[in-house]
Amino acid sequence: MTPDLIYGLTGIAVFAIGLVGALCAQDRLRRVLALKLCSVGAGFVLVVAAWRSPPADPDPVPHALVITGIVVMVSATAVALALIRRLQTLEAEDDDD
Amino acid sequence: MTETPFLPLFILLTSLLASPVLFALPETAARLRTGINLGVAAVKVALVAWLGWKVGQGVIYDVSFTMLPGLDFKLQADPLAMLFISLSAILWLITTVYSVGYLERGPHRARFFGFFSLCVAATVGIAMAGNLFTFLIFYELLTLATYPLVIHRGSAEALRAGRIYLIYTLAGGLVLLLGTLGLWVLAGTTDFAPGGILDDVVAENRLAAQMLFVVLVGALGVKAALVPFHAWLPIAMVAPAPVSALLHAVAVVKAGAFGIMRVVYEVFGIETAQALGMTAPLAAMAAITILYGSLCAITQDDIKKRLAYSTVSQVSYITLGVALASPIAAVGAMAHLIHQGLMKITMFMAAGNLAEGLGVKKVSQMDGVGRDMPGTMLAFSAAALAMIGLPPLAGFVSKWYLAQGGLDAGYGWVIALLLGSSLLNAIYFLPMLHRAWFRDGGARDQTPARRRIGWMLAAPPIATALMVLAVGGFANAPFSPLEWTRFVVAIEYQE
Amino acid sequence: MTDAAILFDLLLAGSVIALAIASLTVRDMFAAIVLFVIFGLLSALAWVRLSAPDVALAEAAIGTGVTGALLLKTLHHLRYVTGKLGEGPARGLTPTAPVPAGVIWANAAFCGMITLGLALAFLGAPRSGPGFDALVAEAMPASGVDHPVTAVLLNFRAYDTLMEVVVLLAAVIAVWQIERGLSDAPAPALGEVWQGFARLTLPAIVVVGTYLLWKGSEAPGGAFQGGAVLAAVGLLLLLSRIYVPQPAHRGLARWAFVLGAGAFAGVALLVSGGGRVAFEYPAEHAYALILLIEGLVTISIAVTLAALFHGREPVAAPVPEGRNDT
Amino acid sequence: MMMIDPVILTLFLPLFGAIAAFVLPRAAAWVGLLAVLATGGAVAALVRDVLAAGEVVTQLGGWAPPLGIALRADGLSVAMLAMTAGVGLLVSIGALDSLRDLRERQYFWPLWLLLLTGMNGVYLGTDIFNLYVMIEVIALAAVGLTVLSGTKQAVRAGLEYMYASILGALLFLMGVGFVYLQTGRLDFAGLIAAEPSGAMSAALALMVVGLLLKTALFPLHFWLPAAHANATAPASALLSGLVVKAALYIFLRLTTYMPLPDEILVTLIGMLGAGAVLWGGVQALRAERLKLLVAWSTVVQIGLIFIAFARAGQVGLSESWKAAALLILAHGVAKSAMFLAAGRIKDEIGHDRIADLDKSDIRPTLAQFTFALAAISIIGLPPSLGFIGKWTLMEGAMAAGYWHWVAVTMIGTLMSVAYFSRVFAGFLRFDRMRGELAEHKGWALADAAPLTLAIAAISLGLMAAPILSFIELGYPFGAQ
Amino acid sequence: MPDLIPLVSAVLIAAGAVFFIAGTVGLLRFPDTYCRLHALTKADGLGLALIALGIALTASSFGEVFRIALIWFFVAVASATGGHLIATYARRVDRAEGKEGS
């Protein structure tokens, strides 16, 4: 049993948990959270794929990809959250009327 | 011969290019619009005459460019095409005059004449299509351009009719697309050629060829108003009179009939079609349509509907002539293409005049109209008598040849059919004439609907009626439809 | 030792999965976010175990830190607009229709099957198989920097990185657009202690961020990690109201947002010509150019992330002070 | 002046344009239009290069793949670029006129130019991770455009769109992870060289599902109608005409480089396409609003494109991608014309309820005419490009003996006639007007743009042969 | 003497871990927010200090020791501030709910 095996399967599990959440969750915030879990899961798989048995250095390219992925995800999250804030405000205004 | 090969293209473009100009003209520019309309129509007649002269000398024009690998857009002015082009060019000119008069004060004139022009372009395209693919393109264009004309009045009834019309014809077009594709896949070409292009396919796969025949003729039968695909035609009579006159009496149904000719003669070849055993059922179908249309016409009180059912019946003479597979019958069929057009347009324009001038829209209101509108009713009567087949009028000529063809092909029942049909024609036309000439209209003078009609409405039916007389009376003159027809049939039967 | 490490790995993996499940199932949304933050930090830890310190830094700073802050801010806003600001647990803030349990289970079963398939595919794949290792090692001397991840990000696959900065730019434009004219929930009153903390730590964070950026050319760190840390400065400034965005600063903010993408793309274009293509830095200037780009990109990232946190574009019209909670 | 590779310019011009439009909000419209024009110029140069050389490859940074990223332009990708540039330019011209609100204007241009950057990047990309980043650029910009109007419906639809987009992109990213796991590289050449294996199948499945979600193939279309129907007209035109095509394009490329392992899957995708055609048709028949009807017709058309993809079956992809490509181009041009025209009609009449169109005494004739012209191409009547696409589709299906695809296509066509004739009836009925026929606001620049597009959609059909031979340049899918 | 350093370091780290565990147990077992905070901040603060000290002993350079000290300082300040904020918030919520209750 090696770290890559453990964390690879962890990553897949986290991805699947996120997937269930993204498909089933009703709460808007929680869906964002679920999608973020998916992205972490994908990150796990890439980092695991880059890993080499200790004396050897890991492959740096997937690391760069995951960093890119993280920044892309935070951008997408920010937009989704902005939409949620806006939508909730619009709905609240409608309730007031 | 160093003729410009683009002559057919010019003829097509005259009305195709006129259309956007007419759309763009403001509603108020009536004079300019009339000028453009008549000018272009006259130019077109001149070009067609020139083309006819050349084609008569044996020149074949051919314009094509590639649309898809191996598949060309192809225009070809052969003698058969000339037959249809001349009809549409001449009648377009006359109907344009009539339409200008008819729609003088109506709304949406820019739109009307734009689409009208487009219709004629489509008809010309259908006539000159050099392959089934090109034919299909113009066939669909015709559908699209006629739809706005059918619903021109913008009433709920018109829209309902328009929807039925659109669904019938576009479904027919779709089936035609299927057939064209089938032809393309089976034969590798869709070009029209006398004698047909399917001999190899028939040898290989008889069933596929038979199915192809059914699909193609069935699709074209929708526009040709073959029973049971005829229901759209009477309903489409809500359109304004010039539309009914030119399009439904001439362009649309003739496009279908013409297509059947092209398919039977130049896709399958008459002998192949016969060998496939497909001509006899087609003839039977045509015969049923002839009788059924006439029977329906008798019960109609609405003048235009009566005329519409009469069209259903009469157009099937053409199909019958094709299906009899005899050169003599073919002459009758092709001559009828012209003759029926002239007769029917006269009657529709006359009916339009009755409605415009006297408010008369039903047969039961026709008492005494002969005295109120003698010119119009004379034209109507001439056309009606010709339709019944009174010698030596136009209808007689075509029926004569059809009957001879029937005998030639060994189908004795054709004589009975024609006699029966003529009898039915008489049953629904003669009472109209009787009412018009021999009954007293009485109180109609006071009806508010009455107004004077201008020369632009009065003259066209008379002009076409004179043509009806001429094509019958001088049937054997050079360049008469009948003579030209003989020329065409010689080509199609490869004699 | 190995066994102990494996045990640690297993424990960590188990906690990561448990936290993932917990953050989606716990009913209080605030708790869910807190659990998510812990989840993110533990994931970062796991990535350290997989010898990916750069990724771990980025995940901790951006994936967890900034994302967590964004989520909390949104939660605060939702509580404000739904009038539930004073309540303890944050539940049912967005309208929900109950999902039938059958649907959930069907989805879960479906996802379970996917997981199984993916796991099988994963087990069957060559895990430490051929990668870019050899190619990177070969190309490193010509890259201009000593740290492989930085070389990949800023040189070998600089195009990707440029587009990543563009994504960030697109996000901030979209957020400004979405939230224009939106009145903000009043910031929570955090008190004196917080103010003092903010003032105390600000300079230190600036130093740390710059250090991370600088260090990036030879060791884990770089523009994104540094930018995220510097963004924390912005968050502190915003939260402690030391800096309140003014409409007059909009122009400057716009320039700061586009600085990174513009400079990156500009350099990429300027170096081309003379036989070189875009992004092909001349060997003798590669280090300087990469550092220049990284520096400018860091500024952009920091400002952009802070702006994403702040949300709406500062507008001239005064925000009506309608609901002020105390 | 040094010569810069047009491939690079195609990417960088819109990017710089977006930056300039964002920092100069007052001049955004003119800066944006200039950038779109310049991009069009770069694409034209690229067309010239591809005509001369067949394919143009640029290795960014001088690093050869798989380490570096290469951009590749061949016939198909340049055709997509040209369609995007052309449609984009005309939509931009329309937007100049139809976006009156200063704030909308300010944000429209940078977002649209970033969208253009992303799409151009997709069409030139050869690296799957890079494609992931590009589809995210597209997604964020597209969502920004979707909610430009700021209405509640638009924001709600935009949020759904955002969720679908993120999820699709993440599925794609996971697929990228599996590709790397198996092959250790990320470029197209690596995909082609890869042996079939479990990881590659998983990767393909993940990426395909992600892309289908992004391109809204039935039943993953749920987000599309609301998003496209509620956006402002220029945004709808861009979203429906161009954006969904990016994911579709990646799908076409990927499934060629990594063939679907089983023929059943090809059939399955075709069946989903058929489902889209039928379900979308039914929904379009029931739609109450014009823009919603048009949006459902997008669902139908996407289904048709997938049928075109699937109809190849045993004949192989070597031919079927052409039908799909033709349909993609045709739909891009015609649908953007239709959305712009629908927007104009809504602007003039004040609403877009189909049942009440004929009650209005204002008839924006030109926009209605444009709508009808666009409908001709969408229905697939000759000689439009849509007709040519459908012809190619049906021809292939017939030749392969797949009659069911022929039947579905024909049913879809009939249904499209039925739902568009609802609209035409609204245009042409005059007996329920409230008052006298009133003059509409007159012709505007916003009328010219969709009219040009609609005419192009029809007349491009006449140029089908050159288009077909152009998209084969550079052998996008190998020389077989 | 040098042999002693790793041993001392290990002992310090272990002691730190014990404090952390104690703090965590407190977090889980204590009845209300204030008690939990008490356990967490006190125990973790001490645990962190011990661990930091333990690691500092094994550091190879003065620079490392300095950085460890910095980390300890900032974490301590942050946790104190965090504890304060949580307590303030909890009190406010309690007051709000208390009002509603009476």
List the helices and strands and how they pair.
The complex is a heteropentamer of chains A (97), B (495), C (326), D (480) and E (102).
Chain B (H helix, E strand, L loop, with lengths): L6 H18 L5 H27 L4 E8 L2 E7 L1 H24 L6 H20 L3 H19 L5 H32 L11 H6 L1 H18 L8 H4 L5 H28 L1 H6 L3 H21 L3 H21 L3 H32 L10 H4 L1 H15 L5 H16 L3 H26 L16 H19 L7 H12 L3
Antiparallel strand pairs in B: 1-2
Helix pairs in contact in B: 1-2, 1-4, 2-3, 3-4, 3-10, 3-14, 3-19, 4-5, 4-10, 5-6, 5-10, 6-8, 8-10, 10-13, 10-14, 12-13, 12-18, 13-14, 14-16, 14-17, 14-19, 14-20, 16-18, 16-19, 17-18, 17-19
Chain C lengths: L1 H24 L3 H21 L3 H29 L19 H24 L8 H7 L8 H9 L1 H21 L12 H25 L7 H17 L10 H21 L15 H25 L16
Chain E lengths: L3 H26 L3 H26 L3 H40 L1
How many E strands of chain C?
Answer: 0
Can you tell me the residue ranges of chain C where pLDDT is under 50 for at least 5 consecutive residues? 318-326
| Largest interface: pair, residues per side | A-C, 78 and 93 residues
- N-to-C order of helices and strands of chain C: HHHHHHHHHHH
Structural class of chain B: mainly alpha
Give the overall shape of chain C: globular
Helix-strand topology string of chain B: HHEEHHHHHHHHHHHHHHHHHH
Distance between the termini of chain C: 55 Å
Q: Which shape of chain B, going by the Cα principal axes?
A: globular
User: Largest sheet of chain C, described in full?
Assistant: none
Question: Hey, roughly how much beta strand do the residues of chain C contain?
Answer: under 5%
Strand content of chain B is under 5%
What are the segments of chain B in which pLDDT stays under 50 over at least 5 consecutive residues? none
For the CA atoms, what is the radius of gyration of chain C?
A: 23 Å
Percent helix of chain B, as a range, is over 70%
Mean pLDDT across all amino acids of chain B: 87
Oligomerization category of the chains in this entry: heteropentamer
Rg of chain B (CA only): 21 Å
Helical proportion of chain C, percent range:
55-70%
